[in-house]
Each structure stands twice: as C-alpha cells, then as structure tokens.
C-alpha cells in the first residue's frame, strides 16, 4: 500500500508491483486448472457417465442418451471435464486470491476472512452434492414418468450437460446464503431483528429465485427455494450469535473504561 507522501514515480512502481503480483497469482490459478484438467481428461467419458447416472438409472429399458450434433460426443465430456477441473481447483484459486489481498487487510479482517472463505467453498460443494444426490433423482424420476406413453425418452448429451451444470451452479450459489446473511449482519448493514421481520418477503424471494434459476416446473423450483430459506435461517442463527458476541465485547469495554 502506497503512502500519501510517496512521489508519483514511487506510486507508479507500487502499482506495477501489484499488477505483476496479480498476474503471477492468475497464472498460478490457470496452471493449476490446466494441470488438473490434463490429469482428468483421460477419464472424461467416465466423468460424464457418472454425472449422467441419475438420469440413466431412470430411463426406460432400451432407452439411451443420444448426440444430435457431430461434435457432441467429444465436446460434452471435454466441457464437463474442464468444469470439474475448475470445481476441484476452487480452493487453490481462492488461496491465490487470498494471498493477493491479505497484505492489505487488518488482523481482525484476516481472522474473519479465512473461516468465511473455507465455509464458502464447503457450502458450494455441499450445494452441488445436494443437487446430484437429492434433487436429480427426484427431478428425473418426475420427468421420465410423466411423459406420454408413445414418446421415447432419449436425451441429447449436450442438452443434458447444460441442464445439470445450470442446476449445479444454482444450488452451489444458493448454499452461500448463510455466508451472505452473516456478512450483512456482521458488517452492520442490517440487523437480525430487521431480517427476521422480512421473512415473508424472503420466502417469496426464494421462490422467485428458484423460478429464475431452475427449469419451469414446481418440483425443481421448490427443491431450490426450500433449502434457500432454511439456509437463510441458518445465516440468521450465526448472525444472532455474532451480534450477541459483539454486544458482550462492547459491554465489557464500557465496564473496563468505567
């Protein structure tokens, strides 16, 4: 961080150092993703089979997935493997981001940032796992059993991939709600009492977000909206604990001054 009294040349040199450091961190993150991708590429088809298993297990006997485009058998597993590489590299990428911004943070900010980063990663993974193990079986069972009897279910592999990646992302982001709620309370932007009074609007908002981020059916929307609201309540709980802890510290400080 440059000081106010630094000369323009010193400030420019400091800016260049920051840019070089940023480039170095970005390159490390990209290299990590590429290394993981190259290590996983030999298993690209197996990875796709694993992701497609919730649907394949429910297809009628004799049905199968199809490729309607010439390059789909190659591009779909390739795209999925790249996404999985990014998914696995998230902790390292966040570590590089942390290493870049940490020198400019105060000690109390560092103490709060690390648990939040770790919790964010774990909650994102938990959201993706919830989508795969809970949402997909229920959703695909509904889709495969409600169609007309004379319609064969033969899903395109690229369409299926786009569908599940959208749900993975939606549930991963939705599971970050406790972190967002906690940060709003901890930063003083709002209070537990204020958020508690807005529960009806939060419930409505959860279903609106579920409608926008999931396919247009009530089941998938509810499977996203209900966990979002429950996670909101979890965020309120931790925010309430943090607020009480802050109040105790302030009361203790006033007592010591008296």
- Indicate the mean pLDDT: 83
Number of strands: 0
What series of H and E elements makes up the topology? HHHHHHHHH
Helix content: over 70%
* Spatial shape: flat
Indicate the multimeric state: single chain
Please tally the helical runs, counting DSSP H or I stretches of 4 or more residues.
9
Summarize the structure.
The protein has 258 residues and is an all-alpha fold. Helix content is 79%, strand content 0%.
Report on this structure.
- It is a single chain.
- The chain has 258 residues and is mostly helical.
- It is 79% helix and 0% strand.
- The protein contains 9 helices and no strands.
- The chain has helices at 8-41, 44-56, 72-101, 107-145, 157-174, 177-186, 192-197, 199-213, 218-257.
- α3 packs antiparallel against α4 (107-145).
- The longest helix has 40 residues, at 218-257.
- It is flat and about 80 Å long.
- The mean pLDDT is 83.
Features:
258 residues, mainly alpha, 9 helices, flat
List the helices and strands and how they pair.
Elements: H1 8-41, H2 44-56, H3 72-101, H4 107-145, H5 157-174, H6 177-186, H7 192-197, H8 199-213, H9 218-257
Helix pairs in contact: 1-3, 2-3, 3-4, 3-5, 4-5, 6-9, 8-9
């Amino acid at each position: 961080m440059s000081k106010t009294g630094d000369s323009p040349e010193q400030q420019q040199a400091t800016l260049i150092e920051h840019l070089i450091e940023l480039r170095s961190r970005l390159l490390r993150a990209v290299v990590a993703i590429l290394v993981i991708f190259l290590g996983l590429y030999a298993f690209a088809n197996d990875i796709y089979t694993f992701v497609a298993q919730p649907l394949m297990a429910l297809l009628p006997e004799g049905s199968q997935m199809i490729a309607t485009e010439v390059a789909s058998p190659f591009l779909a597993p390739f795209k999925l493997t790249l996404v999985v590489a990014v998914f696995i590299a998230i902790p390292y990428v966040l570590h590089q981001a942390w290493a870049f911004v940490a020198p400019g943070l105060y000690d109390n900010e560092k103490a709060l940032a690390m648990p939040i980063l770790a919790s964010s990663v774990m909650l994102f993974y938990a959201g993706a796992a919830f989508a795969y193990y809970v949402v997909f079986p229920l959703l695909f069972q509904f889709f495969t059993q409600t169609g007309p009897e004379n319609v064969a279910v033969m899903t395109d592999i690229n369409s299926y991939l786009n569908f599940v990646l959208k749900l993975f992302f939606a549930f991963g982001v939705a599971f970050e709600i406790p972190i967002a709620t906690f940060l709003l309370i901890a930063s003083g932007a709002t209070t537990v009492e204020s958020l508690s009074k807005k529960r009806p609007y939060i419930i409505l908002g959860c279903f609106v977000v579920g409608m926008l981020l999931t396919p247009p059916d009530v089941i998938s929307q509810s499977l996203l909206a209900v966990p979002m609201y429950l996670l909101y309540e979890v965020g309120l709980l931790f925010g309430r604990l943090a607020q009480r802890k802050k109040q105790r510290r302030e009361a203790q400080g006033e007592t010591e001054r008296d």
